[in-house]
């Protein structure tokens, strides 16, 4: 039985081979040729940078609080309002302060009246002393009478001086009371925009209790943290590219305006303040990154137009020695103008299809229309 089965299998295999040979020779399918622009990847010198992150801040910001204790009667602004320097922003209950100012004014009037009365008495005492001196020359008064008149004139003059000092003190107290009365009005220290409102009417205001926050109008700055290992590369006045993704603000050049000399002991980073040009796209609190140059390095660069996005992956059509395009996944790095750095997936000197658009070029022969140099 085993011999019969083996013979049958051999016969069946022979028939299959004969059938296959009867179909004739197999020819490979022709490769489609597509015309496209071609670019060559090149090794070039690229700037070496470190990325520092931070938030945009106003160059001057102030948290406003009351200088006296009192209930808030009115808050005249909201977050986002622009205000002028000296503008009243909030009003406190000033009944007690007005009473104190009125009392101080009354004290000034009383002190001035006492000074006038004392001055009248002093003038009379001085006149009496002058007459007694004439009589003394005529030897018409006793020494005791002369001493009494002299002492009376001196006491009157001293009383005038004392009451004058009291009047001045009363005036100073009145000025202080009126100054305190002005503190019932919370005013803007400079022109700017209200960024926070922390109190409403009825709240109790007191020194140190924040009511409003205001940022000065004008250009913003980036407060970035820089690791201590590279802080030596940062110096005053250097130009630093800044990107703010939330505002679609890229490539803006900032200038280092301040380097805080002490590092944060917990993170071992330095605070670097980078001034930016004025822009309506930028707002305080936005997240931003600064590319701080530290030198140069070798990098493989290709035009950004040769990179194809497949979802979250970056790809490029790379040509082999026969000019056949292969879709290759690549890892890209920083962008340098119209060029992009390729970290992996492409070697220097390889040819890529430029501007492939949405065409599927994998496995197709590429006929170069022109070769673009990156």
Structure description:
This protein is of the alpha+beta class. It has four domains: 89 residues, conserved putative lor/sdh protein from methanococcus maripaludis s2 fold; 88 residues, Efflux pump adaptor protein, beta barrel domain (Elongation Factor Tu (Ef-tu), domain 3, Beta Barrel); 62 residues, Beta Barrel (OB fold (Dihydrolipoamide Acetyltransferase, E2P)); 87 residues. Helices cover 28% and strands 40% of the residues. The protein contains three helices and 21 strands. The longest helix is centred in the N-terminal third of the chain and has 43 residues. The chain is rod-shaped and about 150 Å long. The relative contact order is 0.21.
Outline of the structure:
28% of the residues lie in helices and 40% in strands.
Itemize the secondary structure elements and their pairings.
Layout (H helix, E strand, L loop, with lengths): L1 H20 L11 E8 L1 E17 L2 E5 L4 E6 L6 E2 L4 E5 L2 H43 L5 H40 L2 E3 L4 E6 L6 E2 L4 E7 L3 E8 L11 E6 L4 E11 L9 E7 L11 E17 L4 E3 L2 E7 L5 E12 L2 E6 L6 E4 L10 E8 L2
Parallel strand pairs: 1-21
Antiparallel strand pairs: 1-20, 2-11, 2-15, 3-10, 4-6, 4-9, 5-8, 6-7, 8-10, 11-14, 12-13, 12-15, 13-14, 15-19, 16-17, 17-18, 18-19
Helix pairs in contact: 2-3
């Amino acid at each position: 039985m085993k011999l019969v089965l083996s013979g049958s299998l051999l016969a069946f295999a022979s028939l299959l081979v004969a059938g296959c040979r009867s179909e004739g020779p197999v020819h490979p399918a022709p490769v489609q040729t597509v015309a496209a622009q071609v670019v060559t990847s090149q090794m070039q010198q690229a700037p070496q940078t470190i990325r520092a992150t931070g938030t945009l801040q106003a160059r001057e910001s102030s948290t406003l609080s009351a200088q006296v204790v009192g209930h808030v009667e009115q808050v005249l602004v909201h977050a986002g309002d622009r205000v002028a320097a000296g503008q009243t922003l909030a009003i406190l209950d000033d009944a007690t302060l007005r009473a104190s100012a009125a009392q101080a004014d009354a004290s000034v009037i009383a002190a001035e009246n006492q000074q006038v009365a004392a001055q009248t008495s002093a003038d009379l005492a001085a006149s009496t002393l002058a007459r007694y001196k004439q009589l003394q020359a005529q030897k018409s008064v006793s020494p005791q009478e002369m001493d009494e008149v002299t002492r009376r004139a001196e006491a009157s003059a001293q009383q005038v001086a004392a009451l004058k000092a009291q009047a001045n003190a009363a005036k100073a107290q009145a000025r202080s009371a009126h100054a305190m009365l002005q503190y019932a009005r919370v005013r803007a220290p400079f022109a700017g925009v209200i960024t926070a409102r922390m109190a409403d009417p009825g709240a109790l205001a007191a020194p140190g209790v924040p009511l409003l926050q205001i940022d000065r109008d004008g250009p913003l700055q980036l407060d970035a943290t820089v690791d201590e290992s590279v802080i030596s590369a940062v110096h005053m006045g250097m130009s630093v590219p800044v990107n703010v993704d939330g505002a679609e603000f890229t490539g803006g050049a900032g200038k280092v305006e301040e380097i805080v000399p002490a590092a944060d002991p917990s993170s071992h980073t330095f605070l670097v303040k980078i001034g930016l040009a004025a822009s309506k796209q930028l707002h305080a609190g936005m997240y931003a990154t600064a590319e701080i140059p530290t030198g140069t390095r070798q990098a493989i660069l290709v035009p950004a137009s040769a990179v194809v996005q497949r979802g979250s992956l970056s790809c490029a059509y790379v040509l082999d020695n026969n000019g056949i395009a292969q879709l290759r996944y690549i890892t890209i790095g920083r962008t340098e103008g119209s060029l992009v750095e390729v970290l992996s997936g492409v070697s220097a000197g390889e040819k890529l299809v430029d501007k492939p658009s949405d065409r599927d070029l994998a496995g197709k022969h590429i006929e170069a229309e022109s070769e673009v140099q990156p």
